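Q: Here's a chain of 116 amino acids. Please give me its 3D structure as tokens.
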Amino acid sequence: MATDKRNVNVNGGESLDLENLVQYQDGSIVSRTLLEDQSGTLTVFSFDEGQALSEHTVPYNAFVQVLDGEAEIAVGGTPVTVKKGEIVLMPGGIPHRVRAQKRFKMLLTMFKTAVT
């Protein structure tokens, strides 16, 4: 997975064009972190068609907001297809995976409060 190291100036009261913060790369997943602190992370991803994040579990709740394209997200073994404009919750402590059915971009918002 490639990480875009360019700085993003996230200033209060300003808008960002999320869909264009990361570009597609053939055969790759590209990520760009917009915010990372003790409360959580905000990261934009682009996935080329067929690219995937394998099943894994984290102790935090996370939301995926689809910015472009289409993906299959499985939470607890149950797959759901998501498209542009849709969101899905990946609860902490439950295995999940993400696979691009078509090229797609997402905003991942992770809350670093452990689920009990």
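Q: Can you summarize the key feature?
A: The domain at 2-111 is CATH 2.60.120.10 (Jelly Rolls).
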